[in-house]
Design a protein that fits this description.
alpha+beta; Ribosomal Protein L22, Chain A; 3-stranded antiparallel β-sheet; two-stranded antiparallel sheet; elongated; Large ribosomal subunit protein uL22; ribonucleoprotein; ribosomal protein; structural constituent of ribosome; Ribosomal_uL22_euk/arc
């Protein structure tokens, strides 16, 4: 298995999933991945399910065209099972990193009039996902008395001199 483009900060609190040479359109998958990035795992799964049922939509910001949602959902399910295996709390997982890359084009042919043949190319993609367990925010403890800064010999001498003048 290849190297991931992003390594999580805390390896013990995160899990990974990857799909290579997937027969889904790159453009659609790229937009779906951008839509679910930094969502909680359960919310992302629900969102993709709603997109398939046409209850919610994926905003197309870069590529304005139409289905890489179902495969992304399968990949999230795979990452969830990896998290279960590693003993992570599935309800606290957040999509830290999701990346979609172009895979080599697959070539088919379509037959045209007068004996011509045209290419019928598909643009598959590679997808990688890293889920990380969200950490609880802990309030910083306040110090009762801030520690005084140690003064240099020069400043101490000046203070003594000031005291003697007064």
């Amino acid at each position: 298995m290849g190297r991931y483009s992003h390594e999580p900060v805390n390896q013990t609190k995160s899990c990974k999933a990857r799909g290579s040479n997937l027969r889904v359109h790159f453009k659609n998958t790229h937009e779906a991945a951008r839509a679910i990035k930094s969502m909680a795992l359960r919310r992302a799964q629900k969102y993709l399910k709603n997109v398939i049922e046409h209850k919610e939509c994926v905003p197309f910001r870069r590529f304005n065209g139409g289905v890489g949602r179902s495969l992304a959902q399968k990949l999230l399910k795979n990452a969830e099972s990896n998290a279960d295996y590693r003993g992570l709390d599935v309800d606290r997982l957040v999509i830290e990193h999701i990346q979609v890359n172009h895979a080599p084009c697959l070539r088919r042919r379509t037959y045209r009039a007068h004996g011509r043949i045209n290419p019928y190319m598909s643009s598959p993609c590679h997808i990688e996902v890293i889920l990380t367990e969200k950490e609880d925010v802990v309030a910083k403890a306040t110090e009762e008395e801030p520690s005084k800064k140690k003064l240099s010999k020069k400043k101490l001498a000046r203070q003594k001199e000031k005291m003697m003048r007064e």
